[in-house]
Predict the 3D structure of the following.
Amino acid sequence: MKIFPLQILLLSLLAAFPPLSTDMYLAAIPLLVQQWQQPLVIVNMTLVCFFITYCACLLVYGPLSDKYGRRPPLLFGIALYTLACLLCASSGNVEMLIVSRILQGAGAAAASSIVFAICKDVFTGAQRQRVFVQIGVIVAAAPVIAPVIGAWIMEILTWQWVFLLQAGMASVAFVGVLKMDESLQQKKEEGVWRAFGSYGRLLLNIKYMLLVVTLSIFGMPVFAFIAGSSDLYITRLGYNERQFGYFFALNALAFVFAPLTFSRLARRYAPSHLIPFAFVGMICSALLFLWTAIPMPWRLTVPMFMVTFCFSFCRPGGSNLILEQVDRDAGAASSLMVFAYFLTGSMAMWLFSLEWNDKLQALSIMTCAPVLLALILWGIWYWLDAGKTGGVTVAE
C-alpha cells in the first residue's frame, strides 16, 4: 500500500500524545512546587497519575477498537483529552490538576494505543517496520521541541497556556480522524466482554509476553529521567526554565538519531541481532553516571543521552517484533504492549521522585538492574524463536 505523508503525520501526532502531554510542562514542576507549597513527590503525581490512568485505559480501548472499529473510540478519546486539557488549564491547586491529568491520561490512551493497531491493519511486514521508523522519528521531535516551547510559554505567558496549546493540537487530530477512513475491515462479532478475552490469549502467548516485558522494563531509566529532570537541572543545578528546556531537548535528540541509525542498520542486519547491542550500550552508559571525573552537568547529560539513544534504538524493531508474534487481536496486542511500557515507566517515575541522597547513583541503579533482567528475558525469547523457526527473525 502507498504511504501518504499526511497519513504519517496524523499517525505521528496521535502517537505523540504522551510526550506532548508531559514534556511540555516539565519546566513548570519546580514552579508549582513553590507556588502551591507542595513537595516534589506530590506535584510529580500529576505525571504518575497521568500514566497510571493512561495505562489502565489502554486495556479498554484496544478490544473496543477490535469490536467497533478504530475511529469511534479514537474520536471519543481525543474529545475527552481536549476537555481534560481545558480543565488542567483552569486548575487552581495540585488536587484539581491531578484529577484533570487523570482525565487527560484516559483520553490520550485512545490515541497512542489505536495508532499501532491502525498500522497493523494497513501495513504489513517490512513496510510496517519502515512506517514505525518514520513515525518514531517524527514523534521524537515532540520531546525535543515540547520542553523548549513550554519554557518559552512560561517565560512569555503562564503555565496554563501549555495546556491550552495541547487542546489546540488535539482539536487538529480530531479533525484528521474525522476525515480518515476506517482501517479495520473485519470487526469482531462477539460481545464486548468477550472481546476482552483476547487479553487471556495474549497472556498465554509466551513469545509475545517475553518481548513485551523485555522492552517495557528497558525503558524504565528514561521515564525516571523524565520525572526527575526538572528537579535535577533547575532545583539542584540552578539552571532556569529556558536552559532546562535546552538540556532536555539535547537529550531528546537521541530519539531522532536512534531510529534513523536503526533504519540504516536494519537494511543489512536482523533486528534480533541489533537489539542486544543496545542492552549492552545502556549498561555501559549507566556506569558513566558514577564517574566523578566528568564535571556536572555533563556527567548527567552525556550518559543520559546515550541511555536514551540505546532505548530509542530498540523501539521501531522491537515494536514490530512484538506485533509479529500475534496473528489476531491486533488492537488488544497493541494496547497491552503500550500498557506494559507505560506501567513500568510510571513505577520508575514514582521511584525516582523519592528523596534519594545521590540521584545519579539512583539513576545508574535504575538503569543497570532492569537492563540486566531484560537481557535474560531477551535470551529466553531468542532461544524460543530459534528453536521454533530453526533460526531467528530476519530483516525483510
Q: What stands out?
A: Residues 5-179+198-389 form a domain with the Growth Hormone; Chain: A; fold (CATH 1.20.1250.20).
